[in-house]
Amino acid sequence: MVSFTQLAVAATAIVGSYAVPVADANAPDFELSPMTKHLAVRQDYTQNYKTGGNVNFSPTNNGYSVQFSGAGDFVVGKGWRTGSARNINFSGSTTASSGTVLVSVYGWTTNPLVEYYIQEYSNGNGAAQGQQVGSLTSDGSSYQIWKHQQVNQPSIQGTSTFWQYISVRQSKRPGGGTITTKNHFDAWAKLGLNLGTHNYQTVSTEGWGNAGGSSQYTVSG
Questions:
Q1: So which residues are the signal peptide here (predicted)?
Q2: Which of 82, 152, 190, 204 has the most crowded CB, counting CB atoms within 10 A?
């Protein structure tokens, strides 16, 4: 990634948010508001959403930082308007003092409509839900592969039925590293979990359930 125009959006200004269910049945949906600005650079997507609590999000020229406490549900991050099988590098840290907190590569495709996670860190199960269907080894760790069907849920195409594909890293690395997304996409395809045309793709921090902690990352790819 190169430079990034800062974009901070108050919760009251957010429109057209999408809900992304999380693993905990008692947790609120992972909701996302796509606030985009097309730039002549690779890093051109900022996400910033919260439902409650204290979430202080600061985009930077090459990443983001966030401090949070008592958070009901939030997701913030930086990435690309259009996803691809790129190698993504992230570097920084996450601390979690309460609730559920995770750091992932997160994105959507269309035709078919798919929501996906490559989860690098969580202080719990994070996005893992549904049925475990396989595993892969990539970037120094094994990952569990999960699939989960969402029925009549909000998506980037409105209320729809769609699949979630989820890779969950077993050797958690809140400090960052390289994520070879192609390895995940290929492993999913071998299991019949096919992606479509890429929409946005981000590195993001999510929290829910009275979440407390902080994240700070630089992102490139």
A1: 1-19
A2: 204
Pick the catalytic residue from 164, 206, 213, 220.
Answer: 206
Residue for token digits 């990435």?
79
Residue 31 falls in the annotated catalytic set: no
- pLDDT category at 43 given cuts 50, 70, 90 is low
Q: Report the relative pairing of strands 114-122 and 160-169 from DSSP bridges.
A: parallel
**Homologous superfamily of 11-220 in CATH?**
Glycoside hydrolase family 11/12, catalytic domain (2.60.120.180)
Give the tokens for residue 51.
């439902």
Cβ contact 72:51 at 8 Å: yes
From the list 20, 219, 15, the residue with the least C-alpha distance to 117 is 20
Q: Which of 44, 73, 115, 120 is catalytic?
A: 115
